Description:
The structure is a homodimer. The first copy, chain A, is globular. Chain A starts with 19 loop residues before the first helix and ends with a helix. Chain A has a two-stranded antiparallel sheet with strand order 1-2. The first copy, chain A, is mainly α. Chain A is built from six helices and two strands; from the N terminus they run H-H-H-H-E-E-H-H. Chain A binds a DNA duplex through residues 36, 45, 47-48, 62-64, 72-80, 83, 98-102.
Amino acid sequence: MASEQRQPAAAAMDTGPPSLLYSVKQVELAVRSHLDELLRPSGITALQYTALTVLHRRSGLTIAELARNSFVTPQAMADLLKVLQRRELISRTRDPDNRRQVRLRLTEAGAALLDHYGPAVRRLEELMLTEMDAGDRESLADLLNRCRASLTRGPRL
Amino acid sequence: MASEQRQPAAAAMDTGPPSLLYSVKQVELAVRSHLDELLRPSGITALQYTALTVLHRRSGLTIAELARNSFVTPQAMADLLKVLQRRELISRTRDPDNRRQVRLRLTEAGAALLDHYGPAVRRLEELMLTEMDAGDRESLADLLNRCRASLTRGPRL
DNA sequence: CCAATTTCAGGTGTACTGAAATAA
DNA sequence: CTTATTTCAGTATACCTGAAATTG
């Protein structure tokens, strides 16, 4: 820890480039910031919106499945869903074949909310991808998917 | 265990591929999950660790600058820093030239913590980038940086 | 006075651990 | 009995709005 701390105020203590871990985080923070603002009138957060889109694509998931998909505990996911259910954006029904599980689905109001904000969210994605051609976009999607796969393969999950 | 592998072929409500916005979020969630686990013994969260690394690279930032860097309000950043200061991982000193501002710096304990966890964090990054060659990594870094730039140029911030 | 930074007060959302109830 | 899912209770953190104090 014998690092030199010379400048008091005009700092320039660069210790190499920010990591890719950090770059991912930065993009996610920027996206969330825009998304939260965009969704403000709806009263739901970026995270809640994300959960709705997952349910839209994969209707009938259980709380536990959704939690694993988002790398959080089932309790954390249950908290989030409580808010969405209170606003009647999702419905919960016991699975008759496996009465432990609760199947989640969008209500009509939930689907309507996604319809309403879909265009603005797509414009946000378009803003992020400004000046990227089709090849760049494909590369980005591919690289991100490989990151996700590598992180979920080995340990944990 | 084979009985629960019912596939959404029946539901068939696929509404296109997940967006790139979602892919970014997924990678970030996976990273945070690993990072939180890895940092557990230290008692600090992935978010707090990230703030420490930013201060390591750019010593002497103010709360407001750090907040803008992370796309949150100064109040939210102050909350986070309160925890780090309580554990004496950072120090706060009034800027003599501008007595409104408070300059933030790592303490020796803060730097030691980064030193201690640095190798494990780099291994995590390596896990994420498994099987990506140097060209892929460069592409990913470039594409993410362009995303960040596009999101911060136009409106907001 | 105006603008930027920080802080205080308060409220909600996010996420965890631990533990219990239920059912396959 | 064992395991998976869900829920309850409690706690720490993250993030916001609004307002006040300070300084440039």
